[in-house]
Amino acid sequence: MSEHRREGLVLSIAVGIVAMTFGVLADAAGLSLPQIMVMSAFLFTGASQFAAVSVIDGGGSSYAAVGSAMLLAARNALYGPVVSRLFRGSALRRGLSAHFVIDETTAMASIQGDDETAADAFWWTALWLWSLWNLGSVGGALLGSVIGEPEAFGLDAAFPAAFIALLVPHLGARPGRVAALAGGVLAIAAVPISPAGVPLLIAAFGVVPGWLFGRREEAEATS
After folding, report:
1. One-character DSSP codes across 204-220
2. Residue 152, CB-side half-sphere exposure with 13 Å CA sphere
3. Residue 185 to residues 179, 194, 204, 216: CA-CA distances in angstroms?
4. Are the CB atoms for 130 and 97 separated by under 8 Å?
5. Smallest Cα–Cα separation from 47: which of 215, 200, 183, 150?
6. What was the pLDDT predicted at 153?
7. 55-80: buried (b, 16+ CB within 10 Å) or exposed (e) per residue?
8. Predicted local distance difference test score (pLDDT) of residue 138
9. CA angle, 69 as apex, 64 and 72 as ends, to 5°?
10. How many other C-beta atoms can be found within 10 angstroms of the C-beta atom of residue 165?
11. Integer Cα distance of 210 and 8 in angstroms
């Protein structure tokens, strides 16, 4: 097995373990096994799935759950220009390929030295990742009835931990810190006056001052 395929498999196994946590939390939030299977198969982006389940478990509306999931999934659109050159064929085939454009597949493809290897790394990682994510989700859902309350094992902290993991790389730059601080303030202010799940959506507006701050830094650097 080539090195990039082996690395994709190892990464997918790790993600599959995380999927078990999702399955447990989704089961505790009241989702049925078929609902969990459909979500993992067709949504197939971990952060968004954790967000939706977190909102549902907190008593939030379906609109807030979908809005939170879409907000986090929107970042995947930014990966399109990075991997679009790897897709060939009709518009329908390219559109179906977009289902697998997520953090892990894009990362594996982008570090390869040529397009042929990058395409191979993308598709093998996508195959293993989709399979193990779905198997892990089902396994976690079945395990959920045995575990009972996920709080007893600290699994309820999985989504906040995943969200922080997405945030940390951006804290190295000042615009990222500004956005994180603004988002945190907005979320805290919204908690007492808005339904569950809505503070997460409101926190997204924190990117506006971060973006403005970044533009100002660029202007100062070029002046």
Report:
1. GGGHHHHHHHHHHHHHH
2. 7
3. 10, 14, 11, 22
4. no
5. 200
6. 60
7. bbbeebeeebbebbbebbbeebeebe
8. 94
9. 125
10. 10
11. 33
pLDDT per residue over 198-212, tens digit each? 676 677 677 778 778
What whole-number distance in Å separates Cα of residue 198 and Cα of residue 193? 10
For residue 181, what pLDDT is reported? 86
The Cα angle at residue 111 between residues 165 and 105, in degrees rounded to 5: 60
Tens digits of residue pLDDT in 171-199: 777 887 888 888 888 878 887 877 665 67
Domain ranges of the chain: 3-153, 173-223
Q: Are 136 and 18 in contact (CB under 8 A)?
A: yes
Joined tokens for residue 138? 């089902």
Alpha-carbon span 206 to 179, nearest angstrom: 5
Which has the closest alpha carbon to 27: 192, 189, 141, 174? Answer: 141
Question: Computed from CA positions of residues 162, 99, 102, 138, in that sequence, does the dihedral angle turn out positive or negative?
Answer: positive
Is the confidence at residue 136, as pLDDT, over 80?
yes
d(CA 218, CA 57): 42
The sign one gets for the Cα dihedral 147, 151, 153, 159 is positive
DSSP string, 103-154: HHHHHHHHTSSSHHHHHHHHHHHHHHHHHHHHHHHHHHHHHHHHH--GGGGT
